[in-house]
Every structure is written in C-alpha cells, then in structure tokens.
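Teaching assistant's notes for section 4

Start the section by putting this record on the projector. Ask students to predict, before seeing the second block, whether Fe-S cluster assembly protein HesB will look compact or extended. Collect guesses on the board.
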Amino acid sequence: MKVEAAQTAIDVLKEIVEEQSDQPTSVRMYFAGAACSGPSFGLALDDKKESDVSYEVSGIEFIMDAQESAQFGDMVIQDIGGGFRVIPDSMKDMQSGCSGCSGGCH
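Reveal the predicted structure now:
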C-alpha cells in the first residue's frame, strides 16, 4: 500500500497526534461504507494490528487492514478546503458528488 497525502493533511495529522499524546500514533484508514459517489473512507488514531499493512509519509504511519488494502489499492488524502477526502488512488481524478443518482444521497 502506498499513501499520497496533501501537505496540509500531514500538518493537521501531526498536530492531532501531538495533542492526543495518550492515544495511538498510527493513523488508520478504514472503509466507512459506500454511497453513489463510491466508497467512503475515514481516518482514526489506532494501534497497528498483525492484519494491517502500513506506509509512512513525513513521519506519519498510515495503517489499513490488509484485505481492504488489497481491495482498494493505494490511497490518496486530498485537501478539499475545510476538510480532507480519503479515496483510492484510482479515483483521485474523479469528481465527487451525487449528481448522477437522482438526488438519492443525503
């Protein structure tokens, strides 16, 4: 697994890890469900498990379940202004949104 992350995301995650000194220091990327715009992923501080793969970017260890990594491949964390979007690398050039699902997304 490879992770590409916007520098702003790295800076924010480093701040969070420093502020949460009593929490794990690895950043878990996890599949959070699917919507009409594709898979949705979340981030959380967590301990690395034996079933995880990892990748380090600028001192931040990103971890992901090996099965999810095999299914979704390399990951990208994009700065979308006011937040971040975690997506598979294969989807990084796609537009987000629900315009194609007839308003079924909420």
